[in-house]
Write a sequence for this structure.
């Protein structure tokens, strides 16, 4: 079974691509999705978040929600908004956000490789979110939300990407946030064979985002397996970018209180692990080991004691060091998944968002983190370990609806 393979993509007709393309299902609340899809009958949000077309008090995990997704998908098919390619293809996908550009392949990735650890993960999953994806895939008989993967440095794959983008794209969409999404169809048989071979030579692929989608695909494949007969469900929808193009932003922390300490007591306590210095303005950490601390009306710069650096790929992460030497021992926050005293702010919102949440009185302090590096993510995955919650924030986000994978 190949690591990746081409597939017959389900895509919007070119004239409808802008109408269909939508943000990923998991970055919008139901209310936000309802507002975003208002007046847009062909928005893919009607498939990825179909509760927006049901009464406001509908449980998003109710059977009626998945049934509505199927109904909405069928409407788009019947209206020729979506069509399925006649032959298996790869797709090149470029995202442009300001000065940042990244280009990758859309492919069907092997569930067997995922199960065997050749497609490597770095996060735990939650059963309820997995169950939701299983029900959604099973109802639609399609994977509509791609898993974001990274491939290790490969000049051959990079060169093949350049070939894949040489012709005219079949769709180019500028989203509401100004991000440009462009798709090319790769149907040349020789180029397809070269792409498949280039990826087969790689030792691994790495999940950047989409752990619940890949875990759900594995469960669907196991449930549908029929002996040694290969089926579409033995693969999952993925977009695979070169690891050197991936953009990880900071994933920052805000806390509601200082655990009964005054600001001066708090600073004295954290000085056991961090050098603390006042800053003239907002602190955006420039290197690992540096943290920006915002207290009401003032920024401080924290630098971890170099003696506390360790070689373990998880323990050496800045988010791990903060938890081990500050959040836990000083603030008593030890369970990042369940403790209601801590929240997380994606770097796309900027440092002003941290100031806003503290100055409003909602939070007592904010920590601006240095972004986790792709090399660190890959080292954690290679070691078979998992990262702390909210360690990575990838931008730009993939669009839903531009290419889907039908399971037949």
């Amino acid at each position: 079974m190949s690591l990746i393979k081409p597939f017959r993509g389900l895509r919007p007709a070119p004239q409808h691509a802008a109408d269909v393309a939508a943000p990923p299902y998991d970055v919008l609340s139901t209310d936000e999705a309802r507002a975003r899809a208002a007046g847009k009958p062909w928005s893919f949000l009607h498939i990825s978040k179909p509760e927006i077309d049901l009464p406001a008090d509908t449980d998003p995990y109710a059977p009626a929600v998945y049934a509505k997704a199927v109904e909405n998908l069928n409407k788009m098919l019947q209206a020729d908004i979506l069509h399925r390619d006649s032959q298996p293809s790869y797709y090149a996908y470029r995202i442009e956000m300001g000065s940042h550009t990244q280009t990758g392949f859309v492919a069907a990735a092997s569930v067997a490789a995922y199960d065997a650890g050749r497609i490597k993960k770095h996060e735990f999953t939650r059963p309820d979110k997995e169950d939701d994806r299983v029900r959604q895939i099973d109802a639609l008989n399609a994977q509509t939300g791609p898993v974001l993967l990274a491939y290790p440095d490969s000049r051959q794959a990079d060169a093949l990407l350049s070939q894949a983008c040489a012709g005219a794209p079949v769709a180019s969409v500028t989203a509401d946030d100004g991000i440009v999404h462009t798709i090319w169809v790769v149907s040349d048989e020789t180029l397809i064979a070269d792409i498949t071979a280039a990826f087969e030579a790689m030792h691994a692929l790495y999940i950047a985002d989409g752990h619940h989608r890949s875990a759900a695909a594995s469960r669907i494949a196991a449930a549908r397996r029929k002996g040694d007969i290969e089926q579409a469900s033995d693969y999952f929808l993925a977009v695979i970018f070169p690891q050197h193009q991936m953009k990880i932003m900071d994933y920052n922390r805000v806390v509601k209180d200082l655990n009964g300490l005054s600001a001066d007591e708090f600073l004295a306590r954290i000085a056991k692990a961090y050098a603390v210095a006042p800053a003239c303005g907002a602190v955006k950490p420039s290197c690992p080991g540096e943290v920006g601390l915002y207290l009401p009306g003032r920024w401080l710069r924290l630098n971890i004691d170099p003696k506390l650096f360790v070689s373990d790929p998880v323990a050496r992460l800045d988010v791990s060091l903060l938890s081990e030497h500050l959040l836990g021992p000083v603030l008593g926050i030890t369970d990042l998944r369940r403790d209601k005293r801590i929240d997380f702010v994606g770097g796309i919102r900027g440092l002003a968002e941290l100031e806003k949440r503290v100055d409003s009185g909602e939070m007592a302090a904010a920590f601006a983190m240095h972004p986790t590096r792709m090399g660190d993510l890959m080292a954690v995955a290679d070691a078979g370990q998992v990262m702390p919650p909210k360690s990575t924030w990838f931008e730009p986000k993939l669009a839903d609806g531009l290419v889907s994978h039908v399971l037949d």
Q: What stands out?
A: The first helix runs from residue 17 to 20. The two ends are 17 Å apart (CA to CA). The chain has two domains: 4-247+396-406, 251-370.
